[in-house]
Amino acid sequence: MPRTVIVVGGGAAGFFGAINCARNLPEGRVILLEAGSKFLAKVRISGGGRCNVTHHCFDPTQLVQNYPRGGKALRGAFSRFQPQQTIAWFGAEGVQLKTEADGRMFPVTDDSATIVDCLLSAARRSGVELRTRSPVQGVAKQGEKFQVLLKTGETINGDRLLLATGSNPLGYRWAEQLGHTIEAPVPSLFTFNVPDAPLTDLAGVSVEKALVSLSPKFKGTYCQAGPVLITHWGLSGPAVLKLSAWGARQLQASSYDHPLWLNWLPGVNPQESMAQWQQTKQNHPRKQIANFSPTALPKRLWQRLTAQAGIKPGQCWADFSKVQEQQLTDNIHRYHCQIKGKGVFKEEFVTCGGITLKEVDFKTMASRCCLGLHFAGEILDVDGITGGFNFQNAWTTAWLAAQGMAAP
């Protein structure tokens, strides 16, 4: 008898799993169910509407370092399907990708519709039965068969079931009913609300290389480097987003009320900064401190940090005191503020938490608790930092699930 595969979830992972499974099961039947009126909604809005498909990192050992949770489990998975294979797969479908300076990869069209149209076309050509407005009411296992009950009252029977429901609580509930444990989901990839007027008054100022840390020691995964953008509500930028991912559980446990430290000039140590101040004081004594900075910091930020060090408008370098020197050094290398809530990074919601990874075989993405059940994408307790890593998790786990579901 030809095999029937049911895929629940019409996002990136669901589509990629359905397409590749259908191609490996030419005599079988693959049904993809989406509760909403449109497929691939998250793909459409990702990357500011450009779709950050993957990241130009082809070494699995390096690649896994971009996953706060799930990196160890993905190490073997990436040896079978990683960004190189993603690029080749889309290339074979007629979609060329380009690499930007920071390693992110987008379609050359800079339009997420290119990826959406590609996946829709590939699914139709592969014979996938695409069904929108098909919300699932419940999932059950009867003998060797899965029964998927739709809210319309229809029941679909299948031999294999792929849950690719993202962070939808219903997906977690069905997985639990089929024997799985769920790591509590909490938000990841978000901006920091910092109602600190000395900072938020500088909205629009960005620093290309800064350190942000949840610890005053500036060490470990709770310290991240990169561009930081000051906004009217607090802090954003790649370094902040990376820190929000690595510190997702710690920040959630603190109810997003947590101290934060910034080093605005990590390329220079505090002693070097002090020496720089003294040299400037000696060489340019009549220059005004607020208007003559020996650093590469943006002028508005420098002026704010000097004011917070007690340096008065019009004060010259000749009058720069030891107390001001210490305070300015602290302001630049150990700026302290308080996170008082989280914002949203565009519309790209990412969740840490999901299916406990030890309950999944990452060679086939098969459940270790329920024969015939597979998982792909964000329903797993896997999440990456911003830069195309979450989509790569979707492509990789979906491709592996497809091989597993089509295997004899």
Task: Describe the fold and architecture.
There is one protein chain. The chain is α+β, with helices and mostly antiparallel strands and 408 residues long. The protein has helices at 12-24, 41-49, 60-63, 71-78, 83-92, 112-125, 169-177, 197-200, 238-246, 248-253, 270-283, 299-308, 322-333, 389-406; strands at 4-8, 29-33, 54-55, 97-99, 104-107, 129-131, 136-142, 145-150, 155-158, 160-163, 182-188, 192-193, 206-213, 223-230, 234-236, 257-263, 335-340, 350-355, 360-361, 366-367, 373-375. Strands 12-15-14-13-16-17 form a 6-stranded antiparallel beta sheet. Strands 6-2-1-10-21 form a 5-stranded parallel beta sheet, with helices on one face. Strand 1, helix 1 (12-24) and strand 2 form a beta-alpha-beta unit. The longest helix is centred in the C-terminal third of the chain and has 18 residues, at 389-406. The model has no long low-confidence stretch (mean pLDDT 95). Its cofactor is FAD. This is NAD(P)/FAD-dependent oxidoreductase. Keywords: FAD, Flavoprotein.
Enumerate the spans where pLDDT stays under 50 for 5 or more consecutive residues. Answer: none
Largest sheet: 6 strands, antiparallel
**How confident is the prediction overall: mean pLDDT?**
95
Count of discrete alpha- or pi-helical segments spanning 4 or more residues? 14
Number of strands: 21
Bin the helical content: 25-40%
Which shape, going by the Cα principal axes? elongated
Which band does the percent of strand residues land in? 15-25%
Strand order of the largest sheet: 12-15-14-13-16-17
Distance between the termini: 12 Å
Q: How would you classify the helix and strand content by structural class?
A: alpha+beta
Query: Using only CA atoms, what is the Rg?
Result: 25 Å
Keywords: FAD, Flavoprotein
Protein name: NAD(P)/FAD-dependent oxidoreductase
Domain RsdA/BaiN/AoA(So)-like Rossmann fold-like: 4-403
InterPro entries: BaiN-like, BaiN-like_dom_sf, FAD/NAD-bd_sf, RsdA/BaiN/AoA(So)-like_dom, RsdA/BaiN/AoA(So)_Rossmann
